[in-house]
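QUALITY CONTROL LOG
STEP: pairwise intake check
CHECKER ROLE: data steward
CRITERIA: each record must contain a sequence immediately followed by its structure tokens, with no blank fields

ENTRY 1 OF 2
RESULT FIELD BELOW
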Amino acid sequence: MDSGNVAWILASSALVCMMIPALALFYGGMVGSRRILNMMMMCFGGASLVAVLWALFGYSMAFGNSVGGLGLIGDITEFPGMGQLLAADEAASIPVVLFAAFQLFFACVTTALVAGAAAGRMKFGAWMLFAGIWATIVYFPIAHWVFAFSSADGSVTGGWIASGIKAIDFAGGTAVHMNAGAAALALALVLGKSSGWPKMEHTKPHSRPLVLVGAGLLWVGWFGFNAGSALSAGQSASVVFLNTAVAASAGLLAWALIERLRHGAATSMGAASGLISALVAITPACGAVSPLGALAIGAIAGAVCSLAIELKFRLGYDDSLDVVGVHLVGGIIGTLLIGLFATDAAPNAVNGLFYGGGVELLGVQALATVTVLAYSFGITWILAKILDRVVGLRIKPEDEMRGIDIAAHSELAYLTDEDPVELGSPQRA
């Protein structure tokens, strides 16, 4: 065991865990004042449920030996309850149980991201049911495809993307962001549009400062997300750390510039969105590119995603908090641009087209992209359709108009003189 590596991954795990409340703040500020509690509860509730499932069987599905050697799903019977991970492996640089904890928070964050597409109009119970099943049949298998590597001695077979076609995804552009974005699109289509969409006074962002605070905390957490994925405290983590920092900054500036040129002002919401878009894009590429490549990817993501969020108005789907425009589009950008900007001087040690590597890597990245998008969207759409038929996904129209917080949680974030002091459960002053 290397104590420095252990300390770094412990810290990185805590940083990724912090991304859950950070996302709750980011999403919470973007919704109306009578929707914020539900939005934050969707993040916390979904993440907590997935953590339980991860301990019971999720880790086995994601990182167990591939069933039949096909690279599609891990053996669910290999680590049930994760008790087998308690025995120390003295040959490992970090404890396997620590790696399991680190990856647990990836599953939690990915599930919480999907909630942004359903803001203010989905039953809380239906969301929890959806989140648990979705993680089981969508996230856990895709995590196996992308994050599970075959062992050097061939005794353990990994996922077909990681160990078969060997596509590059350093920290989750496909498994996390594209996966969440495709699922969000499917869920939004099944849920349908919010009442009064797209001109809805009751759904406008109620706290831009909360959005900025959430985005800032997400940025901090992302260093654990990306640099922690090096699984050691060394050169690779250091390169990834730098790439993450400069890409995020370029994305914020690019989005702000596009806003200024198109609409006459650079907004705080745009700055936060540009930051997150670039962080999404650099996630798969952070170990494959130079700092100049990271700057390019961040700037491209900030500019393109600022235009992509308008697709929902042109195509008529209500993606409430732009999960599609930011995470789906940003994930695609970052994953595909690896095929252009990758350099063998970076930790992944492979060249893309611009560095003399040809088009093969671009083709591999495209195959991983298309497959993850198709599986995530298709299975999520089927799941949402079934749940809508069985339990119903939408809250009542009148509850949607007055705000879901009262209907779902019997609470309000901000009480006025007209509001009752008690709404089903005691409210402390």
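ENTRY 2 OF 2
RESULT FIELD BELOW
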Amino acid sequence: MFESLVSTIELVINKLNGLLWGSVLMYVLVAAGVFFTLRLAFIQFRLFGHGAKLVIQGREKVDGISSFQVFCTSMAARVGTGNMAGVAVAITVGGAGAIFWMWLIAILGMATAFVESTLAQVYKVKDSEGQFRGGPAYYMEQGLGKRWMGIIFSILLIIAFGFAFNAAQANTITDALNNAFGFDKTIVGIVVMLASAYIICGGLKKVARASELIVPVMAVAYLAIALVVLVINIDQVPAALSLIVKSALGWEEAAGGAMGAMMAGIARGLFSNEAGMGSAANIAASATPNPNHPASQGFVQMIGVFVDTLVICSASAAIILLSGVLDNPGDQAGIGLLQLALTNELGGWSAYFIAFAILLFCFSSIIANYSYAESNIMFLTKSKKVLYIFRGLVLAMVMAGSVASLQLVWNFADVSMGLMALVNIAAITMLSKVAFAVIKDYEKQMKQGLTPTFDPKQFPEIEGIEQGEWSTAKMAEKA
């Protein structure tokens, strides 16, 4: 009876996943990316350099969480096994052309990420401890006056990022260390749980500080390995680029044909960079922006999408395509294909490096995912007791995920995240006029040679923020 019920639930979840990620969500997010790109006059190209400059300037010390710390935290959540295993799966299913479509969806997604993160800053609030919080749930309540919509979004995000994804990330860590070193999964799970507890119980500031330390190390180390493979095979780079383009456009036979390449690339790209999901907007709201304008955090998150997909995912693609492993992959797919590629190029020690990379990628994702969920818990209730209970449940899921098989949980999380994205896209589309006005104001001040600053008095159409301290009063009264 129980097995039959589980099978039925799994069937329904898989059907929903196929519908969301195979068609509906893909078209909605692509359409949103095109719309925001055109309305912002290709801002991801025009002001890319300015965005990169703001990321670097964000390292300056501030009274709160810096823009750079927020950038690292959002990257910690974005960059995970999807940047390695996900790229390998996309190439296996759709051929080399999948990478072309992954790049394209990231370029469009940069504009979407810009809009949602700008709105998160506009409608951010201060809690009773003076910490900024915000994200889709908050701009749904304050900007649209639809708290019910924010509640739905919060519940979906907490399910996906607070519980399911953290269990799955812990499972990946224990699998990797068990396979590489033979470590006992239970012991590894306990260590991961305790390390997670140390950081997440310190709140958002400790999560941000940990991300600031971990993310640059993991990104530089992984890119360095990819660069070595690139240099070793430098003569094959033109042919690899040609294969990517030809396969994407159907000019060369690929694993899944041109349509298969498009579907695989777009799906994996969206899953990796999260543009439009509304997830990164939760931590974007926590930043003390530099300069003091909501659009500055839009620029920072725009660069985050670029680094995630066009840099780190491209590094994984380079390792696989240049190694020649696709000529004889055997039964390898996903992370196994990437490990085989690195082993062929650099020797057996690289398997240990992948285990180390997965450890950093997944652990940083656990603490960043928690930070997203915490902001949504605080949206639902201001009770500290509930927050402490939630932290305990997250740690329990980390431990359970370390030793259990979680395919059903992972699939359920995919459904939650897909529905979450649909709710968020609807909200940012309805609030797009506000975002465009705020971004236009930023650019206007830039052209005048000024350091952009945000004055709510210039935006009487923005509801939910008072004519005083920027966007903090409303929720502080409730805290």
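INTAKE CHECK: passed for both entries
DESCRIPTIVE NOTE, ENTRY 2: Residues 471-479 have pLDDT under 50 and may be disordered.
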